[in-house]
From TrEMBL:
Domain Ig-like: 125-192, 327-373, 487-554
Gene: LOC115177742
Protein name: B-cell receptor CD22-like
Record's keyword annotation contains Signal: yes
Organism: Salmo trutta (Brown trout)
Pfam families assigned to the protein according to its UniProt record, in alphabetical order: Ig_CD22
Length: 682
């Protein structure tokens, strides 16, 4: 079990094989033409280049093109945080890629440009990188077996293979083969020397096991943890089900995926072969528990031992000196598993980084101290002090999605000899007093104070509305004073797709969103209603036809789609083409529409009849006043609500939109109103 560990480092230096192609004094020479290396490792690709004169101002590596040309790997979302460029010497350049994935297999080319921008050169044919993982393959008779530590390509650096039997190293050899007398309970795995952390899954004939990398882990509240795990079972069995649990329900283990509160909070990263890793995101204190992995095969059931997860938030504890103002501060509770670096802040300014959780200093009454862990600086501890007043927000500004939930995380300090009387959030003053949001109309059931009367002042706002965009401030009143923090700016946005076109082709770049969402989301792109991409970048490029429509969403909030946009498409789409509803009830005719992105909506309405050449807006038809409600907008939603249904409401309903350039009407939705329950289909 790990908190995301770094992969092994496989550095390939092959200087003897040169590939040089050039013209008119321009050339690029690669150290090798092809490399095969291990998934999870690091690779370095080297190149030297020449040019006739002048100054080279731009150097980069690429595998892809977009509308603007070659895409530098450092700007490619698929390589984010994994790529480093290094100039080794004059006219020498090295590319380093960490945490290699099988999808990184590609041909990598080096490109450079002179300072005028007129001369550009790409070294061909480039370096072909193949990324492979290790697998143990078994051949032979009933007991005497030959095992092969197999890869999909031949590893470049002539490695030494390490063999493990029942978890213990038994052999090192330059050959990928190993022979042994194999008992049913024996398990075997292999690795490459120098990359022992990239071991294969174990294979066996008749062994049952679940192995955790760690038996216990301590992790930070709000962070993400991977409980790394492998399992083995008889090779003639087939996995039917695999899941994690913390409790039994009668004789059955309760799959975490079926428990309230875990949806979107856990992710099974394993497979039905040997990996059983569990990821838990946005850790809560209540996630502290004993976790167990269970799998069911075609012939048996097995559960691993208990793995202990402790979730902690950081707390600063002060130990004072009897004779001076010298204090020792300790950050944390349980010992974090990944040997972190602690960061200390004095009065909000960073003063120290250290692997020790202890920090000593001379303290004045007004000094405040807090701590964080490197890589999780957004998860500060509350500040502590002897005689200070403060309100500290994790973020000074937040951008969040309309319809989602946001927590405005906050901590506060006050003199230790005071007692909290009142604590609340506000956005406006009423005379000399701040208006507690809990008493403001429209906020009932919409906000929740998650803080306490000690140091936490977090506010939760659910089902966010555009009107919730405001400056939010925390205020508290003690037995000896009053204090309020500066405002946190909350911007609530709905997703909008913006299109940037190319002058010379149908290649377009689409951007999802308005303000930058605070929680570094994964964006999901849809083309003509089908998912086509997931990416941490809000940008997506594609060749577009006039009829193509695009929309986007954020992972975890797929129900909060943007309106679809298109270049030249007209459509009205109903959720149902026909509806049967009960007399006296209420029905929503759900509907969405698209139109060319360069048009603007002038009018949108529903109708059942034509009057001459014009459709009759139901709002102007006698008998519909107060009986229908248009729930849609002037963007993409065209839902109609009809209340207190009458038998005479049975009709074909159509949606019509008029832009500044055109008119369009959808096909009819058939509504049948009945007084007989037996006619209602479910």
């Amino acid at each position: 079990m790990t908190l995301r560990t770094a992969g092994s480092v496989l550095v390939v230096f092959l200087w003897s094989v040169a590939v040089a192609l050039g013209q008119n004094g321009w050339s690029a020479t690669y150290s090798t033409q092809s490399i095969c290396t291990l998934k999870g490792s690091t690779v370095e690709l080297s190149c030297s280049y020449t040019y006739p004169s002048g100054t080279v101002t731009s150097t980069f590596w690429f595998t892809k093109n977009d509308a603007a040309g070659k895409v530098s790997l450092s700007d490619d979302p698929d390589y984010k945080g994994r790529v480093t460029y290094r100039k080794d010497k004059e006219n020498g350049h090295t590319l380093s890629i960490t945490d290699l994935r099988e999808s990184d297999s590609a041909t990598y080319k080096f490109r450079f440009t002179d300072k005028t921008g007129k001369w550009r050169y790409t070294g061909k044919p480039g370096v072909t990188l193949s990324v492979t993982d290790l697998q143990v393959k078994v051949t032979g008779g009933h007991q005497d077996k030959t095992l092969t530590c197999s890869t999909t390509c031949t590893l470049t650096d002539n490695p030494t293979y390490i063999w493990y039997k029942n978890g213990h190293k038994v052999k090192e050899d330059t050959s990928s083969l190993y022979s042994d007398s194999f008992s049913d309970a024996d398990s075997y795995s292999c690795a490459v020397k120098g990359h022992e952390d990239l071991r294969t899954p174990a294979v066996c004939k008749n062994c049952w096991s679940v192995t955790y990398t760690h038996q216990s882990i301590c992790a930070l509240k709000g962070s993400t943890v991977d409980i790394s795990c492998t399992y083995t079972y008889p090779s003639y069995h087939e996995i039917k089900q695999a899941f994690w649990f913390t409790k039994w329900s009668g004789k059955d283990a309760e799959d975490l995926n079926s428990l309230p509160g875990y949806e979107g909070h856990i992710e099974y990263l394993g497979d039905k072969k040997s990996d059983c890793t569990l990821r838990i995101t946005d850790l809560r204190l209540s996630d502290s528990a004993g976790y167990r992995f269970r799998f069911i095969t075609s012939g048996e059931k097995f559960a691993g031992s208990t793995f202990s997860l402790t979730v902690t938030d950081l707390q600063v504890k002060i130990t004072t000196s009897m004779f001076s103002r010298w204090v020792t501060l300790n950050c944390g509770t349980c010992t974090l598993t990944d040997n972190p670096t602690y960061i200390w802040y004095k009065n909000g300014h960073k003063v120290k980084e250290d692997p020790s959780s202890l920090y000593s200093d001379y303290i004045s009454d007004a000094d405040s101290y807090s701590c964080a862990v490197k890589g999780h600086e957004n998860l500060h501890s509350p500040a502590v002090c002897k005689n200070c007043w403060s309100v500290t927000y994790t973020h000074q500004s937040i951008c969040a999605l309309k319809g989602s939930t946001v927590d405005i995380s906050c901590s506060y300090t006050y003199p230790s000899y005071h007692e909290i009387k009142t604590a609340f959030w506000f956005t406006k003053w009423s005379g000399m007093d701040a208006e507690d949001l809990s008493s403001v109309p429209g906020y009932e059931g919409h906000i929740e104070y998650l803080g306490d009367k000690e140091s936490d002042c977090t506010l939760r706002i659910t089902n966010l509305r555009l009107s919730d965009s405001a400056g939010y401030r925390f205020r508290f009143i003690t037995s000896g004073g009053k204090f309020y923090g500066s405002p946190v700016s909350l911007t609530v946005t709905d997703l909008q797709v913006k299109i940037t076109t190319s002058m010379f082709s149908r290649w377009v770049t689409l951007n999802c969103g308005t303000c930058t969402l605070t929680d570094n989301p994964t964006y999901i792109w849809y083309r003509n209603g089908y998912k086509v991409k997931e990416d941490t970048s809000s940008l997506y490029s594609d060749y577009i036809s006039d009829a193509d429509s695009y929309s986007c969403a954020v992972k975890g909030h797929e129900n909060l789609h943007s309106p679809a946009v298109c270049q030249n498409c007209w459509s009205v789409t109903y959720t149902h083409q026909s509806i049967c509803a009960l007399k006296g009830s209420t029905v929503d005719i759900s509907c969405s529409y698209t139109y060319p992105s360069y048009h603007e909506i002038k009018q949108a309405f529903w109708f059942t009849k034509w009057s001459g050449m014009d459709a009759e807006d139901l709002n102007s038809v006698p008998g519909y006043e107060g009986h229908i409600e248009y729930l849609g907008d002037k963007e993409s939603d065209c839902t109609l609500r009809i209340t207190d249904l009458r038998l005479s409401d049975s009709a074909g309903y159509r949606f019509r939109l008029i832009t500044y350039g055109e008119k369009f009407a959808g096909s009819p939705v058939s509504l049948t109103v009945t007084g007989n329950l037996s006619h209602i289909s479910h």
